Amino acid sequence: MASSINLAVIPGDGIGQEVVAQGLKVLNAVLPQDVKLETKEYDLGAQRWHRTGETLPDAELEALKGHDAILLGAIGDPSVPSGVLERGLLLKLRFAFDHFINLRPSKLFPNTATPLAGSPEIDFVVVREGTEGPYTGNGGSLRTGTEHEVATEVSLNTAFGVERVVRDAFERAAARPRKKLTLVHKNNVLVYAGHLWKNTFDKVAAEYPQVTTDYLHVDAATIFFVTQPERFDVIVTDNLFGDILTDLAAAISGGIGLAASGNINPTGAFPSMFEPVHGTAPDIAGQGKADPTATVLSVALLLRHLGYEAQAVRIEDAVSADLAERDGTARTTDEIGDALAVRVAG
Ligand code: ATP
Ligand code: MG
């Protein structure tokens, strides 16, 4: 646990600016007096691209490497062609910093709306692989634009890449009370990748006899997310399945205003990046309507990653208490941030 935190902040676009301000407010309030917080803001995203045509220049990529962690709001704008900022900024960062763990916890807080029937117990974590699968840009198009166009999108799976994410997931499962890990794949159809994932999973499982293991095809997993979410503790899965499952997870556990995530490099070789799952929400940007809770919970993940477990728990407890007292009265982004900051300062 460092006695100082040197944080890079990328507020980004739309509500990113608004929610990050609240995240920082709560971070400042929760940190002990003797922990020095230094922040440096990076102007990256749609506005920067419009002004300069740049997405993530090498000099800034280098500068980002010097931080302990990164807090990101949201990046994008309908005015920027699709893919420019995703590939040129977000995926570039993820690959450059080797963020091979995409961590997305789902917990149903008290007094929180879920579209599921009854009062389901939801408290699980998805460990999504972050640097392989079909997201590596391997593929191409032949006879482009003709009626005989052929498009390929290769799913890349390496023994090294699969084993490191599977190991990380076992570590996380072993540290939780229920100690249960579910592998989600589709190894009856995607046989080559599925074989590598299942074999690796079974091999590593032998080293963790205290962890109960389970395997589900991804299609079955979507059913159980809705009908029996309580069966899940930790889930490990590939990049694409994880992308889809975590949106479903957010939908069943209080919605997009609460979903936090971390793009993590557990080796510490590069800074990890924490961000709300939601996007820039142009429809409500600038109106003070955005719920900053997802960003505040992302700050908790950031603190836990840096070794500030007690402070992470304080934030999660504050969110839980705040949600329990919500009565439907509309509050501004700023008011929610203030309320959480007061609670964590205790
Ligand atoms: P992007 O392209 O950046 O992902 P988007 O248009 O897909 O943006 P999201 O940000 O993912 O939009 O939001 C989807 C919907 O959820 C929008 O209607 C938005 O207003 C709402 N929303 C997203 N985040 C929040 C939030 N923090 N608080 C309240 N509503 C939100
Ligand atoms: Mg979106």
TrEMBL record:
EC number: 1.1.1.85
Tree of life domain: Bacteria
Associated pathway: Amino-acid biosynthesis; L-leucine biosynthesis; L-leucine from 3-methyl-2-oxobutanoate: step 3/4
Molecular function, one GO term: 3-isopropylmalate dehydrogenase activity
Binding annotation for Mg(2+): 219, 243, 247
UniProt keyword annotation of Cell inner membrane present: no
Cofactor binding: number and manner: Binds 1 Mg(2+) or Mn(2+) ion per subunit.
The reaction(s) this protein catalyses: (2R,3S)-3-isopropylmalate + NAD(+) = 4-methyl-2-oxopentanoate + CO2 + NADH
Residues that coordinate or bind substrate: 94, 104, 128, 219
Positions of the Isopropylmalate dehydrogenase-like domain: 6-340
Assembly description: Homodimer.
Family affiliation: Belongs to the isocitrate and isopropylmalate dehydrogenases family. LeuB type 2 subfamily.
Its biological purpose: Catalyzes the oxidation of 3-carboxy-2-hydroxy-4-methylpentanoate (3-isopropylmalate) to 3-carboxy-4-methyl-2-oxopentanoate. The product decarboxylates to 4-methyl-2 oxopentanoate.
Protein name: 3-isopropylmalate dehydrogenase
